[in-house]
Structures are given as C-alpha cells and as structure tokens.
Amino acid sequence: MSNSESGTHISYLEYKGKYKGILSWLLSTDHKRIALLYFYTITVFFFIAVILGELMRMELIAPGQTIMGPQTYNGLFTIHGVIMIFVIVIPALPAIFGNFFLPILIGAKDVAFPRLNLFSYYLFLIGAILGVLSQFAGNGPPDTGWTFYVPYSAQSSTNVIFALSAAFVLGFSSILTGLNFIVTIHRMRAPGMGWFRMPLFPWSLYATAWIQVLATPIIGITLLMVIAERVLNIGFFDPALGGDPVLFQHLFWIYSHPAVYIMVLPAMGIVTEIFPTFSQKPVFGYTAILFSSLAIAFVGYFVWGHHMFTAGISYGSRWFFSFLTFIVAVPSAIKVFNWISTMYGGSIDLKPPLLYAISFIFLFMIGGFTGLTLGALAANIQVHDTAFVVAHFHYIIFGGMGFATFAGIHYWYPKMFGRMYNNNIAYIAWGFNFIGFNLLYFPQFVIGIQGMPRRYFDYLPQFQTGEVISTIGGFILLIGLVLMVFNLVRSNKHGAVAPANPWHGVTLEWQIPSPPPHENFDEIPEIKTRPYLFGSSTKDKSE
Amino acid sequence: MSGQDNYIEQQDRETGKLGMWIFLFTELFLFGGLFLVYAVFRAKYSADFHAAAAELNALIGTLNTVFLLTSSMTVAMSLTAMQKNNRNLALFLVFVTLLLAALFMMNKYFEWSHKFHFKLYPGSEVLKNLPHGELLFFGLYYMMTGLHALHVLVGMVLLSINMVKIKTGRVNKMHYLLLENSALYWHLVDLIWIFIFPLLYLIT
Amino acid sequence: MKQEEAHVSSYFSHAVVLVFLLTLTTISVLATGWHLGALTVAAALVIASIKASTVITYFMHMKFESLFLKLVITGVFVLYVLVILITFIDYLLR
To answer: What is the pTM of this model?
Structure first.
C-alpha cells in the first residue's frame, strides 16, 4: 500500500472515466463521488432548514405576532422538521461518511452495488425536491408538523400529500443504502478482516443498516395509508368511520423511534474512530462498543410508545414502554464509559475533531438524561409537548449527531479533499457553535418545564426571557456554522496540502493517499491484526 | 469458462442473492404494516369482519391461490431447467408462470369490478352506511389486494424481461442471477398472498 | 479455487412441494366449515405459516442457504411478531 502524495496517483477527484465534465460527477458510480454529491446536497438543504429555524426564532423573540402569523409558523416548523429529519439527519452519516469510508475502512474498492448506490442518491434528490415542492404547490405549505398526526393530516387542506410522498421516496433511498451496506460488509471485507477485526465505524453502519432496512418500510406503508385517508377516505385512522388515530401514532413511531438510532449510531461510530486517533491509544472495550451498537439497534425497536404516553394507550403499555426506554439507555452509557476510558492515559491532541467529539459526549449526555426524564411516566405528563421536548431532541440530534458530524467532517476533510483547514478558524467556529447551541436550547428545558408548549407561535409573557436568550443563541450558532463552512470551503483551494496521515491514525483510510485514488487501493490489503493498534508499523505486527 | 470465472460468477451470484433477500425483508415489513392494521381491527370488530368477508368470493380466492402456488412451482422449476442448461424448458416454464400471473390479475379485475358495480369501494355512499368494521374490512381488502396486485405486475415485468434474456442467451447456465432473483421476488408475491387469502377470504 | 456448485433442486421435489401446498390449501378452505370459535384465526395462521415456511424452505431454496440467512429470516419474523404483540399490549389492555 502506498503512502505517496496524490502526485503519483490520480485522485478520485481528477479521475477521468467514461463520462466527461459534469456528467462524470452526476453519473459516477464511484462511492466517493456519490458521497460528495450527498454532502453538497445535504449541506445546501441543511442551511435552508437552519434559516427556517432562525425565522422561527425571530418570531418567538416576543409574544404575539412578530414577523408572521400562526399559519406561516405552522408551515415553518413542519418543513423545518421534514427537511431536518428526512433530508438531513437520517440520510447524512450513512450517505456521506458511510459511502465515502465504508469501502475504504474494510479494504474494498467500492460498495456491493455501485449503480444501486447512485440510484439511491437520485431517489434522495427526488424526495428532497418533492419536499421543496410541497411549499409552493397550490394549497399552501403543509402545517401538520413533520409527525403528520391524524386526524389533522387527513383533513388539512394544505399540500400534505407532497410532503408524505417526499418522506416515502426518501425512505426508499434510505432502505437501498442500508441494503447496499449490509451486503458490502458481509461480502467485501478484505482478506483477513474477520468480523472482530472490522473497525467500529463500519460496525455502527452495520447496525444502522439493519434498522434502515427493517424499520423504514413501516413508515412507507403508514404514509401510504395517510394518503389513502386523504384521497380515498379509507377510514383506518378516522374515528367517525370506526378507525383509531392512535393506531397511526403506533405505526408512525414504530419507525420513527428506531429512526433516531439510524441518526445516532453512525455518529457514535465516528467519535469511536476519533477518540483512539487523538489519544494515540486503542479503543477501550472494542467488544463492548460493538455489542452495545447491536443492543441499541435491537432494543430500540421496542420503545416507540414513549412518544405516546399521553395519547390514551393502556397502562400496561405505558409501563412496558417506560421500562424498555430505561433499558435502552444502558448501552449508550456503556459507550460513554468506553470513550472516556479510551482517552484516559492517552496522548491527547486536542485538534478540532477531538474537540467536537468531546462536545458530542457532553451534549449527548444532556440529551440522554433528559430523555430519561421524558421516559419517566409521571414526569412525562408535565413535559410532553413542551419546549422541554424540543430541547431534548435538539440536544440529542443536533448536539449529539450534529456535533459528531462536525467532528467527522473535521476528521476526514484532509482525506476527502487533500487539504488541511485552518485550525484557528475551526476553533473559533467551534466556540460560536458550542456557546450558541447551549444558549439556544438550554433555556428551552427551563421554560418547557414551566409550561411553554411546543409548536406555538405565541406564548405567555413569563416565557419571554427564555425565548430571547434562545433566539440570541440561535444567531450566535448561525455565525459559528457559517464560519465553520467558510473555513472548510476556503481551505479546499487555499489550505495546506494534506499528507496521507495527518492525524497518525491506524485505520485503513490513513494508509492511502489524500485524496484517495479512484480504486482506493493499489492492491487489496491483507489484514493480519485486530484494529486500533498504535505504535510503529502496526500493520505488520501480529498480536 | 475457466474455474476462476466460475468462482467470480458464483461470488457475484451470492452477493446479488443476499441483496435480493434483504430487499424481500423490506417488502415483508411493508405488508407487515397492513397486517398489523388488520390485526387491530379484526380484534375490535370480529363480527363485522365475519359479515363483510361473506361479500368476497372464496372460490375465486381459492382459484387465485392455486394459480399463485402453481406459478411458484413453475418459476422454481424454470431455475432448475436453467441450471441444467435446458434453455427451452426454462423459457416455457417462465412463460407458464407469466400466464398464471395473468390469470390471477384477470380474476382480480373481475373481483374488483364486481364490487365496484355494487358500489363497494372506499369513499362510496354504500360503504359509509355499513357498520364500521365492515367499512374497515373493505378498506383493508382494497389496500392489501391492491398493493399485492401492484407487486404481481412488477413480478410480471421481471418475468417478461427474463423471457427476453433467456431467448437471447443473456441469462444462461453460467449467468442466471436475474432469473434467480426474479424467482425469489415472485415467491414473495406468493408468500404474501398465502397470508392474505385466509385472512380476507376464509373468515366466514 | 474451491468450486461449490449451487444446489439444483429436482423438478420432482418442486412438484411434491406443490402437492403439499395444495393439500394444505384444501384443508384451510374446508376448515371454514368447522366451528373453531376463537381458534379460527389461530388455525388459519398456523396453516398459512406452514405453507409460507414450505415456500421459503424449498421453492426459495432456504434449506440450502447459509446459516446466517436462515437466522436472519427467523429474526425478521420474530421481530415482526414482537412488534405486533407489543402493539396489542395497548389494544388488549385499554
């Protein structure tokens, strides 16, 4: 395997294949180019959704109507949620870092089904466009919330079907990506890479892929049922026809709860790669982390009712779901212990990836603990449908998965683009992100407990202080995000040329040039040891 | 064909087959959502379901079951024929499978038009005046058999493509992954019907 | 390079399976005439499950596939049944 600079290899960015010009990107089946297609599309949609969020924050800076009326506000939180959930956080990590690095980390030249991979991207794009169209087609932006609860989603005169179709198509894209990854991991690991020699990011993608494949179809059929309600009056969820609206909630959350594990498992996988590299020490508890990923994926199927504690489900049901919710927290806690233990006694290099990874632990834990508050039956009654929930899920998804994504971007940027970004700007951006994030969301816990409902454009004056701090935080965060992206975009042309292994990592991606050549490896490597062995020339030592 | 090519072809086939199986699992869960709705409403409205099912023609349902089960056999046999290099037999068996599928769809067409004739479709006045459980039964009937029929059509397209490729030799004794995967898909169509049939037609 | 020939099922075995499936179908149609009361659904599902596993095992070749695939398909059905049962914790105890 070559450690040469990209000069002696044609990088995947320059590679000339069957197509020329823009088509060589739009029709490429190279997993690395597809990853970048997703990366750029997702970044654009992320900023659209951020702006939508900022508009909501502007409205909420004062009680009463500030810049928009209630209908507009309802449309905003709906599309903000639909984009963030279905276009950003569910697809992003598998589609960007999974696509780019899964084959490389297991010593393969591409995924099992490269053309299916490209098809997944186009499904994703079509779904995203359908979501955009929902805003502009005849009857006004959907106002149901991204959760599409019946009966309102069956009755609202707005463009609900566009949004439902968008989610359906995006779900199909997710399924195909998951399918591709399962087969890739089963069939394309390099010689010598037994299951327990596979690094932990691929393991997290494996657990995630099973959720993508088995849970997503349920929301597919559920969305079809809502369309059938709207178009055919099918009656499953309509009490006037004998149906049960709570049945929708069951079906919806049977997918949407496991979906949050699609979001967070790869995020945990990413930080699991970062901690050993920046501690120059093997992962502590490889096996525990591995099995905890599988445990989270499995147990995560059985907790969905914790979104429904106040919906009228049976006491036995509430008891069951609360109990399982507490159980599912345990494997996550195990991971936190393992990450900290990985760093303990290590040679810590607090580069931006590690800084974001540590922030991930802090923010994820706040999100996780408040999840337990929500999971406790009695406490749930107080905080359900309040700003407390909004804060909880933003801490977990944005603070958790989001910051882990930023960590991953900063970790793998040199490899993907062959350049180093400016560390100082990265640190400053981190500061704005971290402070802005906490100012934005922490007050929401407080006013939520005090009674501030979610999805309300107006509120009682006593909540204003919290809302103002929150809005200020939102704009500080925006500065951080823009600065972060500016740093990365600018460094693509102006950054220092990156070496193959700027962080002294030991997984396979650091053994190939930055950026990688078209087929990743000159020769498929043969794996002789378990992963995360630090020390000189680790790849030739047997343990 | 060298031993090396054989090995690669076999590896590619195992990979492709695994992909297809995983896709089939997603289809199971897709229909699974509908079966869950069925279970909930059957439990709640068992008498209404019983009454509404009387509107379904168990004879046609049984005939359709026989068609699909037989078509599963013929497509499985076509794979055997392909593996034994009997191209003409494979072609014939895929054709018979297609024929049985067409018969199934024809029956479905008659069933549905018969019900439309009596205004028994979602959103109709007749349905609205039925007891709730019966209305829901029909909703489930249309959605389950409708989604299933869509999959039958997709299966028929796959089988037709196979016929063309067998004829041109693109699918042959060495390269038959397309036929094998299409057969798996077809068996799934059969599997779903195996459950739909007793749950909708035989609860009288 | 080890060449494992894919298993080829015989025409005869497929025909036998079909006869078995048609027999079970006949039984389940006839069973509608029997008064099983609360067991009607269970009986229908048991027979359908036997038919389904037969199709999977023989027509779909699961019998000759890897242990992994056998475990996964079992796991898929178990997961599905668990989801239904858990949903019924709500509906039965309301």
So the answer is: 0.95
